[in-house]
Write a structure and sequence with these properties.
28% strand, single chain, 7-stranded mixed sheet, 12 strands, 222 residues, 23% helix, alpha/beta, Rossmann fold
């Protein structure tokens, strides 16, 4: 929370973590949290639409005629509701179908949406072991075939694909663009609409701005 020139941060830690925070930030205060805090986010996880898909949690019934992506992110990033996620899925819906790599997949919502849109085969990678676990669960929940594995998108070999998606922070997007990425097109997001990745060797072919955020489609120059 930002008030004037001050920024207030709230974090959840166990008892052992309080001392370390107070040691680093002497003005920090601690208070008990209510029971069930870890599931409080569920109150804000509402269905959204993107690329012609209904994306929502398993505790809300979709319309009978909807093409559905069900997501329960747990401890991983990605309910599908964030503008960057929706923008990526919308841009994917405009592209020619083929193989796809989700680089930094989080909960796996974009990868599952890609399968629903007709991309195949779909692979997904993330450095966070929890994200890999949740993405596999999301694929099972939606009964779709996705190859999910743990990898560092900036250092580990990445599988070749027709299209790649990178919904991650701008600095990582730019580093990913600068490495030998085996994809003809790349959908990027994770940054405000006032910013655009520096992309030598790539051409901008489409852009979608949504609620202050942006997503771009880039094609590799030959």
């Amino acid at each position: 929370m930002v008030e004037g020139d001050a920024t207030e941060l709230a974090v959840y830690v166990d008892v052992d973590g309080i001392a370390a925070i107070v040691d680093a930030f002497p003005q920090a205060t601690a208070e008990d949290v209510r029971d069930g805090w870890e599931d409080g986010w569920r109150e804000f996880h509402r269905p959204v639409s993107a690329g012609g898909l209904w994306i929502g949690p398993p505790w809300i019934d979709p319309p009978d005629d909807a093409d559905v992506v069900v997501v329960d992110p747990g401890r991983a990033f990605g309910t599908g509701g964030h503008p960057t996620t929706r923008a990526c899925i919308e841009l994917l819906s405009r592209l020619e179908r083929g193989s796809l790599l989700d680089a930094g997949c989080g909960s796996g919502v974009v990868a599952v949406a890609a399968v629903r849109l007709g991309f195949a085969p779909v692979r997904a990678v993330d450095l966070d072991a929890v994200a890999v676990e949740v993405a596999l669960a999301t694929a099972r929940l939606n009964d779709v075939p996705i190859d999910v594995s743990r990898a560092d998108v900036l250092h580990d070999p990445l599988p070749a694909s027709d299209v790649a998606v990178a919904n991650i922070e701008l600095a990582v997007v730019e580093q990913l663009l600068g490495r030998r990425l085996g994809a003809g097109k790349l959908v990027t997001s994770g940054y405000p609409d006032s910013e655009r990745p520096s992309a030598p060797g790539w051409a901008y072919v489409d852009r979608l701005e949504l609620e202050g955020w942006a997503a771009d489609v880039l094609a590799k120059r030959h």
